[in-house]
Amino acid sequence: MAPDAADRTVDVVRAGVAYRCRPVHAVHAADAADATDVLALYESLGPDSRLRRFGQPVPRYDRGLRRALTELDRGPVWLARDRLGSCVGEARVVASRREPCSHLAVTVADAVQGRGLGPALARLAVADAIRLGLAPVVVTIAADNRPALRLAARHGIELRWDDGLLSGRVRLRRGPVRAA
Ligand SMILES: CC(C)(COP(=O)(O)OP(=O)(O)OC[C@H]1O[C@@H](n2cnc3c(N)ncnc32)[C@H](O)[C@@H]1OP(=O)(O)O)[C@@H](O)C(=O)NCCC(=O)NCCS
Predict the structure, then answer these.
(1) pLDDT of residue 63
(2) Which fold has domain 10-170?
(3) How far is the CA of 49 from the centre of ligand 1 (A)?
(4) Which of 24, 116, 139, 173 suits a disulfide with 80, CB 3.0-4.6 Å?
Protein backbone atom coordinates (compact mmCIF):
# COMPACT_ATOMS: atom_id res chain seq x y z
CA MET A 1 0.00 0.00 0.00
CA ALA A 2 1.36 3.44 -0.87
CA PRO A 3 2.20 5.49 2.20
CA ASP A 4 -0.42 8.06 3.03
CA ALA A 5 0.63 11.69 3.27
CA ALA A 6 -0.02 11.47 7.00
CA ASP A 7 2.78 8.91 7.29
CA ARG A 8 5.36 11.14 5.69
CA THR A 9 8.42 11.79 7.71
CA VAL A 10 9.22 15.40 8.50
CA ASP A 11 12.83 16.39 9.08
CA VAL A 12 13.22 19.40 11.30
CA VAL A 13 16.56 21.12 11.45
CA ARG A 14 16.91 24.09 13.69
CA ALA A 15 19.80 25.60 15.58
CA GLY A 16 22.00 22.73 14.45
CA VAL A 17 19.63 20.13 15.87
CA ALA A 18 18.02 17.66 13.50
CA TYR A 19 14.92 15.70 14.36
CA ARG A 20 12.70 13.36 12.41
CA CYS A 21 9.00 13.23 13.24
CA ARG A 22 6.32 10.85 12.04
CA PRO A 23 3.43 10.80 11.26
CA VAL A 24 3.05 14.53 11.03
CA HIS A 25 2.68 16.72 8.03
CA ALA A 26 4.27 19.90 9.35
CA VAL A 27 6.05 21.23 12.39
CA HIS A 28 6.17 24.96 13.02
CA ALA A 29 6.54 27.64 15.66
CA ALA A 30 3.18 28.94 16.88
CA ASP A 31 1.85 32.47 16.86
CA ALA A 32 -1.37 34.10 18.06
CA ALA A 33 -3.28 32.87 14.98
CA ASP A 34 -2.84 29.27 16.19
CA ALA A 35 -4.77 29.75 19.43
CA THR A 36 -8.01 28.13 18.21
CA ASP A 37 -6.18 25.09 16.87
CA VAL A 38 -4.24 24.70 20.11
CA LEU A 39 -7.50 24.73 22.05
CA ALA A 40 -8.92 22.10 19.69
CA LEU A 41 -5.94 19.86 20.52
CA TYR A 42 -6.68 20.22 24.24
CA GLU A 43 -10.41 19.61 23.67
CA SER A 44 -9.54 16.39 21.85
CA LEU A 45 -7.60 14.93 24.78
CA GLY A 46 -9.18 12.04 26.64
CA PRO A 47 -9.49 12.01 30.45
CA ASP A 48 -6.16 10.20 31.03
CA SER A 49 -4.14 12.70 29.03
CA ARG A 50 -5.91 15.63 30.68
CA LEU A 51 -5.17 14.17 34.10
CA ARG A 52 -1.51 13.73 33.21
CA ARG A 53 -1.14 17.13 31.62
CA PHE A 54 -2.80 19.11 34.41
CA GLY A 55 -2.25 16.83 37.42
CA GLN A 56 -5.99 16.78 38.14
CA PRO A 57 -9.20 15.80 36.33
CA VAL A 58 -10.22 18.46 33.81
CA PRO A 59 -13.64 17.49 32.41
CA ARG A 60 -13.96 20.91 30.78
CA TYR A 61 -11.74 23.92 30.23
CA ASP A 62 -12.96 26.94 32.14
CA ARG A 63 -12.36 30.48 31.00
CA GLY A 64 -9.13 30.91 32.99
CA LEU A 65 -7.59 27.73 31.66
CA ARG A 66 -8.63 28.54 28.10
CA ARG A 67 -6.98 31.91 28.42
CA ALA A 68 -3.78 30.36 29.80
CA LEU A 69 -3.68 27.74 27.04
CA THR A 70 -4.10 30.35 24.33
CA GLU A 71 -1.42 32.68 25.69
CA LEU A 72 1.15 31.82 23.08
CA ASP A 73 3.46 34.77 23.67
CA ARG A 74 5.05 33.90 27.02
CA GLY A 75 7.77 31.78 25.46
CA PRO A 76 8.37 29.54 22.46
CA VAL A 77 5.58 27.19 21.38
CA TRP A 78 6.04 24.53 18.70
CA LEU A 79 3.16 22.74 17.03
CA ALA A 80 2.77 19.64 14.90
CA ARG A 81 -0.05 19.31 12.39
CA ASP A 82 -1.48 16.38 10.53
CA ARG A 83 -2.23 16.48 6.81
CA LEU A 84 -5.67 17.97 7.43
CA GLY A 85 -4.11 20.83 9.35
CA SER A 86 -5.27 19.70 12.77
CA CYS A 87 -2.89 20.38 15.62
CA VAL A 88 -1.69 17.01 17.00
CA GLY A 89 1.09 18.10 19.33
CA GLU A 90 2.42 21.04 21.22
CA ALA A 91 5.45 21.89 23.33
CA ARG A 92 5.64 25.20 25.12
CA VAL A 93 8.12 26.89 27.37
CA VAL A 94 6.53 29.52 29.58
CA ALA A 95 8.56 32.12 31.42
CA SER A 96 7.73 32.08 35.13
CA ARG A 97 6.29 35.30 36.56
CA ARG A 98 7.64 34.48 40.03
CA GLU A 99 10.95 32.66 39.59
CA PRO A 100 14.03 33.13 37.40
CA CYS A 101 13.24 30.10 35.26
CA SER A 102 10.78 28.86 32.65
CA HIS A 103 8.59 25.77 32.50
CA LEU A 104 8.26 23.18 29.75
CA ALA A 105 4.91 21.50 29.05
CA VAL A 106 4.29 18.98 26.29
CA THR A 107 0.97 17.72 24.93
CA VAL A 108 0.49 15.13 22.21
CA ALA A 109 -2.91 14.04 20.83
CA ASP A 110 -3.96 10.65 22.17
CA ALA A 111 -3.86 8.98 18.75
CA VAL A 112 -0.21 9.82 18.08
CA GLN A 113 1.34 9.40 21.52
CA GLY A 114 4.27 7.00 21.76
CA ARG A 115 5.81 7.93 18.40
CA GLY A 116 8.47 10.37 19.51
CA LEU A 117 6.54 13.53 18.68
CA GLY A 118 6.59 14.92 22.24
CA PRO A 119 10.39 14.90 22.62
CA ALA A 120 10.87 16.26 19.10
CA LEU A 121 8.64 19.27 19.82
CA ALA A 122 10.14 19.70 23.29
CA ARG A 123 13.61 19.83 21.84
CA LEU A 124 12.62 22.62 19.47
CA ALA A 125 10.88 24.66 22.17
CA VAL A 126 13.75 24.23 24.62
CA ALA A 127 16.34 25.18 21.99
CA ASP A 128 14.42 28.40 21.34
CA ALA A 129 14.02 29.06 25.06
CA ILE A 130 17.75 28.76 25.68
CA ARG A 131 18.47 31.02 22.74
CA LEU A 132 16.01 33.59 24.13
CA GLY A 133 17.65 33.54 27.55
CA LEU A 134 14.78 31.70 29.28
CA ALA A 135 17.01 29.02 30.83
CA PRO A 136 16.92 27.29 33.19
CA VAL A 137 14.03 25.37 31.68
CA VAL A 138 12.29 23.16 34.21
CA VAL A 139 9.79 20.34 33.69
CA THR A 140 7.43 19.14 36.42
CA ILE A 141 5.84 15.71 36.24
CA ALA A 142 3.34 13.89 38.45
CA ALA A 143 4.80 10.71 39.97
CA ASP A 144 2.19 8.53 38.23
CA ASN A 145 2.68 10.01 34.74
CA ARG A 146 4.56 7.04 33.34
CA PRO A 147 4.90 8.20 29.71
CA ALA A 148 6.34 11.55 30.81
CA LEU A 149 8.67 9.84 33.31
CA ARG A 150 9.94 7.49 30.60
CA LEU A 151 10.46 10.42 28.29
CA ALA A 152 12.41 12.27 31.00
CA ALA A 153 14.54 9.20 31.77
CA ARG A 154 15.30 8.59 28.12
CA HIS A 155 16.42 12.18 27.69
CA GLY A 156 18.64 12.21 30.78
CA ILE A 157 16.53 14.63 32.83
CA GLU A 158 17.33 14.20 36.52
CA LEU A 159 14.15 14.53 38.54
CA ARG A 160 13.88 15.43 42.20
CA TRP A 161 10.92 15.64 44.53
CA ASP A 162 9.54 19.14 44.69
CA ASP A 163 6.36 19.79 46.66
CA GLY A 164 4.83 16.38 45.91
CA LEU A 165 5.81 16.40 42.24
CA LEU A 166 8.96 15.46 40.33
CA SER A 167 10.87 18.32 38.84
CA GLY A 168 14.07 18.61 36.83
CA ARG A 169 16.07 20.89 34.61
CA VAL A 170 15.92 20.24 30.86
CA ARG A 171 19.25 20.49 29.10
CA LEU A 172 19.59 20.31 25.35
CA ARG A 173 21.85 17.52 24.28
CA ARG A 174 23.02 17.53 20.72
CA GLY A 175 22.66 14.20 19.04
CA PRO A 176 22.03 12.39 15.79
CA VAL A 177 18.70 12.47 14.01
CA ARG A 178 16.34 10.12 15.76
CA ALA A 179 13.62 8.42 13.74
CA ALA A 180 10.33 8.51 15.63
C1 LIG B 1 3.99 12.69 27.87
C2 LIG B 1 3.86 12.92 26.36
C3 LIG B 1 4.03 14.40 26.06
C4 LIG B 1 4.95 12.13 25.66
O5 LIG B 1 4.91 12.43 24.27
P6 LIG B 1 5.09 11.23 23.23
O7 LIG B 1 5.13 11.79 21.87
O8 LIG B 1 4.05 10.21 23.52
O9 LIG B 1 6.55 10.71 23.69
P10 LIG B 1 7.28 9.35 23.27
O11 LIG B 1 6.71 8.82 22.02
O12 LIG B 1 8.74 9.62 23.32
O13 LIG B 1 6.90 8.36 24.44
C14 LIG B 1 7.53 8.46 25.71
C15 LIG B 1 7.39 7.13 26.43
O16 LIG B 1 6.06 7.00 26.93
C17 LIG B 1 5.42 5.88 26.34
N18 LIG B 1 4.05 6.33 26.05
C19 LIG B 1 3.72 7.42 25.32
N20 LIG B 1 2.39 7.54 25.32
C21 LIG B 1 1.90 6.53 26.06
C22 LIG B 1 0.59 6.16 26.44
N23 LIG B 1 -0.49 6.84 26.05
N24 LIG B 1 0.45 5.07 27.22
C25 LIG B 1 1.50 4.37 27.64
N26 LIG B 1 2.79 4.68 27.31
C27 LIG B 1 2.96 5.76 26.54
C28 LIG B 1 6.20 5.56 25.13
O29 LIG B 1 6.13 4.19 24.79
C30 LIG B 1 7.61 5.94 25.54
O31 LIG B 1 8.18 4.93 26.37
P32 LIG B 1 9.65 4.32 25.99
O33 LIG B 1 10.60 5.50 26.01
O34 LIG B 1 9.91 3.35 27.06
O35 LIG B 1 9.48 3.75 24.63
C36 LIG B 1 2.48 12.45 25.82
O37 LIG B 1 2.29 11.12 26.20
C38 LIG B 1 1.32 13.31 26.31
O39 LIG B 1 0.96 14.29 25.69
N40 LIG B 1 0.71 12.93 27.46
C41 LIG B 1 -0.40 13.71 28.03
C42 LIG B 1 0.04 15.06 28.53
C43 LIG B 1 1.23 14.95 29.46
O44 LIG B 1 1.33 14.07 30.31
N45 LIG B 1 2.18 15.88 29.33
C46 LIG B 1 3.41 15.86 30.13
C47 LIG B 1 3.27 16.68 31.34
S48 LIG B 1 3.88 18.31 31.01
Answers:
(1) 97
(2) Aminopeptidase (3.40.630)
(3) 9
(4) 24
